[in-house]
Design goal:
Layout: H1 5-14, E1 18-24, E2 30-35, H2 37-41, H3 44-57, E3 65-69, H4 72-84, E4 87-94, E5 97-100, E6 111-119, H5 123-134, E7 138-147, E8 159-164, E9 169-170, H6 176-179
Parallel strand pairs: 3-4, 3-6, 6-7, 7-8
Antiparallel strand pairs: 1-2, 2-9, 4-5
Helix pairs in contact: 3-4
The protein binds zinc ion.
Length: 205
């Protein structure tokens, strides 16, 4: 049984994952709403509930490996892969370039599912797809838990998002909240620091 949008939204609200305020997204855009997906996934059983629908969607696709962008995508990719009983790896930005580290490998022809927690513009997922193609992996599809574009992103491959919500985003110079004198905050993993990464912004959506 697939979850309804109401059930999913209720899980986000119950776990405090849907924040209201004035936020800067990874894309640089400002928004009144922010999905902190990690707050859902701290309750691992909810992570399983959400990812079950995604895994079910791809169970006939003979996925070999799920690849996610760090940081937010890691736990999502891991859970989808666990349910599909396949490998999970992640790519991370090094000097701002999405890269496979930690000895992670994708073999030529491997069937890859690119997975992310929340997306607004699809940027991080597309960067991961580029990494996979460099290794000559085959991108079977892309998936996200939350699509803030309302499903408008074109990844050039089949795309499944569990929950779509079209949320108004503003460029900083046109942001009504900035105009009203409020200062946008960047929630999420901004305080995470990695000793061997520079300029890494974490996974703010
Ligand atoms: Zn603003």
């Amino acid at each position: 049984m697939a979850l309804s949008s109401e059930e999913i939204l209720s899980i986000f609200k119950k776990t405090g994952a849907l924040l209201e305020g004035h936020f800067v997204l990874t894309s640089g855009l400002h928004s009144r709403f922010y999905f902190q997906c990690a707050k859902v996934f701290q309750y691992s059983w909810y992570g399983e509930v959400l990812c079950r629908d995604i895994a079910d969607h791809f169970k006939e696709e003979k996925i070999d490996v799920v690849v996610s962008p760090a940081v937010g995508g890691i736990v999502v990719g891991q859970e989808i892969a666990r349910l599909l009983r396949v490998r999970a790896i992640f790519a991370e930005r090094v000097e701002n370039v999405m890269t496979l580290r930690r000895g992670f490998k994708i073999s030529a022809g491997e069937r890859v599912l690119a997975a992310e927690d929340v997306t607004t513009t699809g940027g991080s997922v597309k960067e991961v797809m580029d990494v996979v193609r460099e290794k000559r992996g085959e991108i079977v599809a892309a998936t996200t838990v939350v699509d803030r574009s309302g499903g408008k992103i074109d990844f050039g491959v089949p795309y499944f998002s569990l929950f779509q919500m079209e949320i108004e985003n503003f460029s900083p110079d046109k942001c009504p909240m900035c105009k009203a004198g409020s200062v946008a905050v960047k929630p999420g993993s901004r305080d995470l620091k990695y000793p061997n990464q520079s300029g890494q912004e974490g996974s703010n959506k």
